Amino acid sequence: MAVGGEQVVTGVDPAHGLTASQVRERIEDGRSNDVPARTSRCIGDIVRANVLTGSTR
């Protein structure tokens, strides 16, 4: 639940964080902040590959 732009999690003591079982439950429910591996190139990589090739057309 968000309150004033801040995330509020019920049943969690902010001073101690989540218990191991709470972490496991959230992971099983897909509620984790795991970020998938990057599948594309950044803009700099694309520019280097296409512009800065050393070609003298």
Molecular structure report:
This protein has 57 residues and is mainly alpha-helical. The chain has a domain at 1-31. It is 30% helix and 7% strand. It contains two helices and two strands, in the order E-E-H-H. It has helices at residues 20-28, 43-50, and strands spanning 2-3, 6-7. Strands 1-2 form a two-stranded antiparallel sheet. Strand 1 and strand 2 (6-7) form a beta hairpin. The chain is elongated and about 60 Å long. The termini are far apart. 0% of the residues are buried.
Topology:
Elements: E1 2-3, E2 6-7, H1 20-28, H2 43-50
Antiparallel strand pairs: 1-2
Main sheet record = 2 strands, antiparallel
Percentage of residues in DSSP E strands: 5-15%
Q: Order the strands across the largest sheet as they lie in space.
A: 1-2
Give the radius of gyration: 22 Å
Shape: elongated
Oligomer class: single chain
Order of SSEs, N→C?
EEHH
Termini separation: 57 Å
Q: What are the key terms here?
A:
57 residues, mainly alpha, 2 helices, 2 strands, elongated
Tell me briefly what this model is:
The chain is mostly helical and 57 residues long. It contains two helices and two strands; from the N terminus they run E-E-H-H. Helix content is 30%, strand content 7%.
